[in-house]
Every structure is written in structure tokens, then in C-alpha cells.
Amino acid sequence: MRLPLLTSLALSAHALRIIQSNDDGWAELYVRSFHDELLAAGHDAVLSGPAENRSGTGSTDIEPSPRTSPCQYNSCTPQSPPTPLGTNATSPRLNWVNSFPVTAMRYGISTLGPQLWSGAPPDLAVAGPNVGSNLYLQVHFSGTVGAAVYAAREARIPSIAFSGKSTGTLAWNTTPVPARSAVYAQLATKLVNTLTAGGKPYLPEDVWLNVNFSEVDGEECKDVEDFRWVLTRINVGVFSRPDVQMCGRTRLPTETEVIWRGGCWVSVSVGDAADKSTADAGRQGVVAERLGGLLGCFP
Ligand SMILES: *[C@@H]1O[C@H](CO)[C@@H](O)[C@H](O)[C@H]1NC(C)=O
Ligand SMILES: *[C@@H]1O[C@H](CO)[C@@H](O)[C@H](O)[C@H]1NC(C)=O
Ligand SMILES: *[C@@H]1O[C@H](CO)[C@@H](O)[C@H](O)[C@H]1NC(C)=O
What we know:
Elements: H1 4-12, E1 17-21, H2 29-40, E2 44-50, E3 85-88, E4 91-97, H3 101-116, E5 124-131, H4 143-153, E6 159-164, H5 179-196, E7 207-213, E8 228-232, H6 255-259, E9 265-272, E10 277-278, H7 281-291
Parallel strand pairs: 1-2, 1-5, 2-4, 5-6, 6-7, 8-9
Antiparallel strand pairs: 3-4, 7-9, 9-10
Helix pairs in contact: 2-5, 3-4
Bound molecules: 2-acetamido-2-deoxy-beta-D-glucopyranose (3 copies).
The site of one 2-acetamido-2-deoxy-beta-D-glucopyranose has 17 residues, from helix 4, strand 6, strand 7 and helix 6.
GO molecular function: metal ion binding; nucleotidase activity
Domain Survival protein SurE-like phosphatase/nucleotidase: 18-225
InterPro entries: SurE, SurE-like_Pase/nucleotidase, SurE-like_sf
């Protein structure tokens, strides 16, 4: 159940400038539902996403080129002369960049966001929710992760990458909005609000959070409150040093174990932006403290 009044009251004190990107394209519904949910929560969100699906392009960053064909789902028409960037004429918070996810994030942080924020930088960068999950080996190739890692490492903006296991492409104007898009947007907003509630700094330096949601399917996992949140590792940790102590253990479960288990789960991994691997126990501990009672144990 949602408590809109409480939420907006609690949040008015923490309205953030949030830059959004993704890799499935600026007109994909998951990123638009998240955008709407952030605005509804009182945040000042600006989207800067690729003009089309650029999934699997990792950290590729190439200057945008003039767009000569319509964007994904016919969501933009080419201008004459063609332009490398574009804005929804009636919603200037919604922007496309004719290039890769990292490039779109870079333009969002340096230009598109500050244009609407009187020159101020974003407080937080978010990528996704990505449409679909793969095994952890995919993290290196994920454009969603690439965009979040760029923000954390190059732009020094705390960042979060979100990914939802439920797949299927959805255009931005799909109605009614399917449950999976709405639930992922609410879960992502809940994490943003919990992480930032205590003020700055939201995350340790050079860290991004990699957050995965399990499937929203039929009657299963249709409510935010159905989900249980677990601190995880990105990769298996057989030879790694101990993780932060949680639930009486010093080895966290992997995202794969949690997300592929069945049931309603959110995995939250603390990522090291230097190499896209799992951050050390010290930095995991800082995040665990921030998220506090949101986190539970994995059986
Ligand atoms: C542009 O914004 C308008 C008004 O918010 C909206 O109705 C329309 O669907 C948007 N189109 C795209 C492609 O974002
Ligand atoms: C984007 O393309 C990739 C493959 O290139 C595909 O797996 C993914 O589902 C696509 N995403 C959307 C939202 O269509
Ligand atoms: C978690 O999310 C990342 C980023 O979208 C993705 O690359 C990875 O495959 C996901 N992992 C699992 C286990 O779903």
C-alpha cells in the first residue's frame, strides 16, 4: 500500500536534483515510469537517455552525431538540419542524446541538467531500470552500469544502476502502465529516498550501487511491500576478503543467487567504480548503515 501524503511530506525536506539515463532508450517505459515517480516524490528529475536502444554497449562514449532518422518508437522526428541532441518540446525535462548511455549521462550531468537547475550539478545520478537481467558476467557490458560508473568515477556524482528481471519492450506511451514498470519505479524511488534521507555524502567516493529487482509476474510481487531487500555481491567471492558482517555471516550472497531464487527480492550490491567489481567490506558497511532497516537476511 502506498501513503502518498506521508511520502511527500517526508520528502519535501530532501528534494534532490537527479539526472537519469538508461541503455534501453529515452522512450522506454521503465525509465519514464521512474521519472514520473521521482517527480511525484518531490525530486527535480531530468532525463538524458540515448535516442534508441543501446543495450550492451558498456562504457562506450562517443560524441553524439546528428540524428537523421526518427528516434525509438517514433518518439522524435529528425530536424532540418539534423541535431545530435533533442528535447521534448512540451516537457523540457525529457531529453535524448544520439549516442551511447555513457555519453547521454555525460551530457545530462554537464549540460542538460544544469540548464534546468540554474547551473547547479546533480545531487544524484540514476541509470535504468534496465529491461531484463543477465548473469553477473554481463555487468561489464551493461550500458546501464556503464552510465552509473561514469557518473561515480568520472563526474564524482553518487550513482545507482537499476535493473528489473521482467522483460518485454514497452513504448513510453503504453497505457495502462503495466504493473512491472510501476512497481520497479516505486522500488527504485524507495531506495533513492532511503539512501539520501540522512543527507550528504550519500555514498563513499568511487562507489556505485548495483540494484536488481526480481520478476513482477501476474499476481506475484505486485506490491512494493512484497519485496525483501538484501545486501549482495556482484561477483562470487570465493577468493575475496571477507564482506561486511550481515546476518551473522561474512560472505554476502551474490545478486544471481538472490534474483534467480524465485520470490520477490531486491539485491543491492556496493560496486567499486574503479573496476566494476564488488567494493570492500568497509564501503559495504557504510551503505549497510545508510539503508538500515530496509535490509534483511537472505535465507
Ligand atoms: C512529450 O511530452 C508530452 C507532454 O508531457 C507527452 O504527452 C508526450 O508523450 C511526450 N513525448 C515523448 C516522446 O516523450
Ligand atoms: C535492447 O536490445 C537488446 C539487444 O540488443 C535486447 O536484449 C533488449 O531487450 C532491448 N531492449 C528493449 C527495451 O527493447
Ligand atoms: C543486475 O543488474 C545489472 C545491471 O543492469 C545486470 O548487468 C546484471 O546482469 C544483473 N544481475 C542479475 C543477477 O540479474
